Amino acid sequence: MAGIASPSSGQAAPDPATPSTHILITPGMTTAQLPKVKAGAKVTLLVDSVGPIDTATAVFPYGAGREATIGSGPVTVQANGLNKTWQVEFWTDPSLEITPDGTEVKMHLSGTGPAGSAALDAPPYTDGVVVTEGTVYSDWFVVLQGRDTS
Q: Where is composition skewed (Polar residues) in this entry (predicted)?
């Protein structure tokens, strides 16, 4: 994971320009081990493919039949021969009524190329890619201004 626009309290935000700060999602990670993001936060995910994959699609289901909004991607951001790094940005609904604390965001990735297709799903790779805690609404405040028209 290369970026979290609004991480939950206690979750370090990776710097997209500094790979050593990126959060690696490893096989078998449980919900308790997944990165914590606020509902509605933009998440930037990098995924490596090995072999001739030309196109990729991503879906991030969560909650009761919902899917995260895809902001961009998957797009190739780096290539080394046939191997590629893909970037995809997504976010959930920021409402805690729709995305309550503890919501697991799952992942379905697929890629196709001349040699066939490949898929990476979480689960079963992991319990998901992120879990929500809080909301980006808590990061905002509204200042109401008016004027005296009398």
A: 1-11
